[in-house]
Specification:
CATH superfamily of the largest domain in chain A: Galactose-binding domain-like
Number of strands of chain A: 16
Oligomer: heterodimer
Shape of chain B: globular
CATH architecture of the largest domain in chain A: Sandwich
Helix content of chain A: 10-25%
Strand content of chain A: 25-35%
Number of domains of chain B: 3
Strand order of the largest sheet of chain B: 1-5
Shape of chain A: elongated
Number of helices of chain A: 3
Chain lengths: ~325, ~500
């Protein structure tokens, strides 16, 4: 009994030892660590250089590069004329302006494997003028946004609010009925002196620079009563003046006395609510700060509606 | 006592097996199409087809919470799409789910890898069905094939838009066919395959189902593919949208809320169904979208950016009140900072008290369907196809556009534009389809993703954003398994 027990005990020991040994060996291959370099694998995923670019929104000569290289960590850009960069996403100023410039990108990995690509970068002056939004351009809010802050020897009220505006809504669609508008009369004409009314709104446009002339277009609709509707002719004819002022003015008196960028006179009398759309092209000044001013010289009622300003895109 | 011998041998044997390096060191690549079952009868093939939808449906994180890839299907898709647009973000900055909205997703991101794997799981199951579809009843073979190809096209469309060029596997293959499994195929070729797959759906499917592939679903998805592929096919997309519109089978719900809470309604063209309270068939995203009284596993995901709330306030109409909600102090703000998505609230919810919203008995096992395609999307695609990337004054385009806007409470005459611009269309899609995973793809498709998201990232201080972030990195697990065949996107 005793002998038998010992034998059994040894069996347990033997089997345990054996199994532990086997277990510890069985995973050895799987978990063995390689020595440095021994059995190392060749890097077959090599760098590929590639890039895209976007012109800077404010300066077309400055190009922002987007690195689209793969499997790489180091970059060398060659913009020509000895100008280089090692940034990942550099931006570069092509001082000479419009043209085609070959740009070379070399992308390398940490084994110094490299790939080089040369792409032509087109620098084009695609100027887009600042869009202008006219506040209360449809006069639906009465005289709001059209007043001078002060008017030495005059009146800051810009016009008479009127229900006899254009049938056309501000978005160009037909309203099927009159909309609101702005009105001038004999009593609010320029010749009425201190009682004369001037509509004024300051706007910001893209400035004209040394190498770029920027043009905008003022658009509005006007109507003048026919002799059948109302009698009377002002000296020089019943007419409306649309003016683009050179700068922003707080005092109406200074604005009226200033030399404007552009003035247009319209005088076709087609009758109340029979509006005519007119446009007036003007060149932006160097500051980009200009203003719209409307006034009238008339013996009969005249109307303005739907004032808009567009930038003119030239190809 | 004498059994102990056998016990020891058994334990030893088990240890041998447990170190089996085959499984441990040779995991199967996600794109591997390894067949382990085959279908012998019509019922078998049909079961295989239902299995494909199971792959799209994915596994609820609350049922199987392991954070390793677990085939979540579409349940994580909002992270890869909405979070990477300007629509939504994660409330917390901790964990891999918080990487998407900050554009810092790395190749080892768990959720990105899970989605990649989920899409290949759909492709695997579709290829498996196609392999054995000849064993189905003769009258069903074409329909079953078209259904499998529809889902394969759906999965590849998601992959190619998120990851760019990907391996193209269209048959059952062995795991040792590494060249096929890991060689990236250029996007144009992937799109050719998607178009071919979806065209079969258009030809051979009918409109019997909304929670399975249908003719209209194939038409709608193909229209979107035509609007997205490298060489656009605007005429094709317009025709497909008109086929759906003229079929008379779909219409807008008069109440926007019914789109989401009246499942498989007239507006739904294709949706993935979930069952409330059933751990195997429910979804977890509804609970993840809560935050103020949080029901999910995180502090709140898909949190609405103020910039989207502003667009809703100006252009949402009656959609605003049923798309997002603000709670607590946030409810007092004119533009909420941390509003929550309410298009997918779980059964039994009550959010009438903004200080004490409740979400029923089992919000983490929600049953809200996931809508993949609905009629208003088709109407807006119709306008987009006519526009061809430009401003339009086409009556047809503006009619389709206005149909969506009028349902939202806008006036058919006073609010009708005389011309329709791309920006107006994009804005309308943003508020109509918010939180339905469209925004990111819309921005890319309409060519303004870098402009809009670059400005958004600057505003939000997401400094890691650059144009390369518009593509997700290929999951590193796949690259590691490929022996150098699979290449990474520019990083």
């Amino acid at each position: 009994m005793k002998y038998q027990f010992n034998f059994f005990k040894n069996t347990i020991k033997t089997v345990l030892c054996a199994s532990i040994l086997v277990v510890s060996v069985s995973c050895e291959d799987a978990f063995e660590f390689d020595l440095p370099e021994a059995g190392s694998i060749e890097d077959k995923t090599l760098p590929t250089a590639n890039f895209g670019y976007i012109p800077n929104a404010l300066d077309f000569k400055t190009v922002e590069f987007n690195n689209l290289s793969t499997e790489s960590t180091k970059y060398l850009w060659d913009f020509g004329e000895g100008n280089t960069s090692t940034e990942k996403d550099p931006s570069y100023h092509f001082a000479a302006g419009e043209g085609t410039y070959p740009v070379t990108l070399t992308a390398s990995d940490n084994n110094n494997a490299s790939h080089t690509v040369t792409l032509d970068v087109e620098v084009v002056d695609k100027f887009v003028p600042i869009p202008v939004t006219i506040a209360n351009g449809d006069f639906n809010s009465g005289t709001a946004d059209w007043k001078f802050t002060e008017f030495t020897g005059g009146n800051v009220n810009p016009f008479n609010s009127s229900g006899d505006g254009s049938f056309t809504k501000y978005d160009g669609t037909d309203n099927g009925a009159k909309t609101k508008g702005a009105k001038w009369t004999k009593d609010t004409s320029v010749s009425a002196g201190a009682n004369a009314r001037y509509a004024y709104q300051a706007i910001l446009v893209s400035p004209t620079l040394v190498d770029r002339i920027v043009k905008y277009k003022l658009e509005y609709e006007y109507a003048i009563k026919t002799p059948a509707e109302q009698a009377g002719v002002a000296e020089g004819g019943n007419r409306i003046f649309s003016t683009i002022l050179d700068g922003h003015y707080t005092d109406g008196a200074l604005a009226v006395a200033s030399t404007p960028i552009s003035t247009k006179t319209v005088s076709e009398a087609k009758g109340k609510t029979s509006h005519t759309k007119v446009t007036q092209t003007f060149t932006a000044n160097a500051s980009g700060e200009v203003a719209i001013m409307f006034s009238a010289e008339t013996a009969v009622d005249v109307y303005i509606d739907n004032v808009k300003v567009y930038g003119i895109v030239e190809d | 006592m004498k059994y102990i011998k056998f016990l020891i041998f058994a334990v030893t044997g088990a240890m041998f097996v447990s170190c089996d390096t085959e499984e441990f060191l040779n995991p199967l690549p996600d794109s591997a199409i390894v067949t382990n079952s085959f279908f012998k009868s019509d019922e078998d093939v049909l079961a295989g087809i239902i299995g494909m939808y199971d792959a799209v449906q994915g596994v609820n994180e609350n049922t199987e919470s392991s954070s390793i890839r677990y085939n979540r299907g579409v349940q994580l898709e909002y992270l890869l799409t909405e979070h990477r647009s300007d629509n939504t973000r994660s409330k917390t900055l901790e964990g891999s789910r918080a990487d998407f909205h900050r554009y810092i997703v790395e190749p080892d991101n768990v959720q990105s890898e899970d989605y990649y794997q989920s899409m290949y799981e759909i492709i695997f199951r579709a290829n498996n069905v196609l392999e054995y579809v000849s064993n189905a009843s003769a009258s069903n073979i074409k329909k079953y094939s078209a259904e499998a190809k529809f889902l394969r096209g759906y999965a590849y469309f998601n992959l190619v838009r998120l990851y760019g060029a990907v391996p193209l596997v269209t048959r059952v293959v062995n795991s040792d066919e590494k060249e096929l499994l890991f060689t990236r195929i250029e996007e144009a070729k992937i799109y050719e395959q998607i178009v071919a797959d979806l065209q079969e759906g258009v030809t051979y499917l009918d409109n019997a189902h909304k929670s399975r592939a249908s003719k209209a679903a194939a038409q709608g998805l193909l229209a979107k593919v035509y609007l997205t592929q490298p060489t656009r096919n605007y005429a094709g997309a317009k025709q497909l949208c008109e086929d759906i519109i003229n079929s008379g089978k779909f219409s807008l719900e008069s109440d926007f809320k019914d789109v989401f809470y009246n499942e498989l309604n007239d507006e739904i063209i294709f949706a993935i169904q979930y069952l409330s309270g059933n751990p195997d068939e429910s979804q977890g995203f509804s609970s993840e979208f809560t935050s103020y009284s949080r029901q999910g596993r995180q502090d709140g995901l898909n949190i609405v950016n103020p910039n989207l709330a502003e667009d809703f306030i100006a252009n949402g109409g009656n959609r605003t009140a049923v798309s997002y909600a603000a709670f607590g102090e946030d409810a007092e703000l004119s533009i909420p900072e941390n509003a929550e998505v309410i298009k997918f609230l779980p059964d039994g919810y009550d959010i009438s008290d903004t200080n004490l919203p409740t979400y029923g008995g089992g919000p983490s096992n929600a049953g809200n369907d996931w809508i993949i395609l609905r009629y208003s999307d088709v109407l807006l695609m119709h306008a987009e196809a006519i526009m061809e990337g430009n401003t339009t004054n086409s009556i047809d385009a503006i009619n389709s556009f206005m149909e969506v806007r009028v349902r939202a409470g806008f006036d058919p005459i006073a609010d009708r534009p005389s011309v329709l611009t791309v920006n107006e269309l994009l804005l309308e899609r943003r508020v109509e389809l918010a939180f339905e995973n469209h925004r990111f793809f819309d921005l890319v498709r309409l060519g303004v993703a870098h402009d809009v998201l670059g400005a958004h990232a600057t505003l939000k201080g997401y400094t890691s954003y650059n144009i390369r972030r518009l593509l997700l990195p290929i999951p590193s697990r796949e690259i590691n398994l490929s022996d150098g065949i699979l290449t990474q996107n520019p990083q």
